Amino acid sequence: MNADPSVQLRLLDVQALDVKLDQLAHRRATVPEAVTAQELAAEHKEISDAVGAVETELADLGREQRKADADVEQVRSRRDRDEKRLQAGQVGSPRDLENLQREIESLTKRQSDLEDAELEVMERVEESGKRQQELQARQAEIAGKLSVAEQARDASYAQIDTEISASHTERALTAEGIGADLLGLYEKRRAQFGGVGAAALRNRRCEGCRMEINASDLQKFAGSPPELVLRCEECGRILVRTAQSGLPGA
To answer: CT398-like coiled coil hairpin domain: which residues (predicted)?
Structure first.
């Protein structure tokens, strides 16, 4: 393949811009603010899930407390009626009186047990309420930090995207006039060799693989016409001659 030496040198400029674009893409993918925002978002979700679990727990405890209150009130009302009957002397026979007194004793104990259970539920409601408040406070704190991190992330993205856009424009202008065949070969080599498809020949060394060119290849390169597109025998990349190539007789 042949190409004007000036066009081959321009290919190195395209390569430099492609390296810059790769670096910008890497910077965008590893923006520290984005990592921070991602970590905060995960923590916020975890806390939000915990808040949701506590809210469900409080709803269940609310139903349990209402039932406990109703049970206590039912037993208390029944015991109050029995005590009123007892105090009003509405029980005729000694046996009925004894049965009523036993029932009152049983209801008193039942009421005490139910009130203990009711108190236990109330304590659990209080504990869950405190935990809910703590989680909600933490949730609000993380939400604030997340908002700041997202703003910083978006600012970094905007700056990098501006650089990417400018570099793409410059790359397109620089690539104008480079033949489709040479540019296609460059793109193919670039895909094969980690983003570097063309390298300069400087001081008898390929700057793509950093290997020194052997003497026979140097002689062959020196004897070839300037328009001939060279390839590094070591790595296969396009090798572009420069003023510092170090070719014999240059």
So the answer is: 14-194
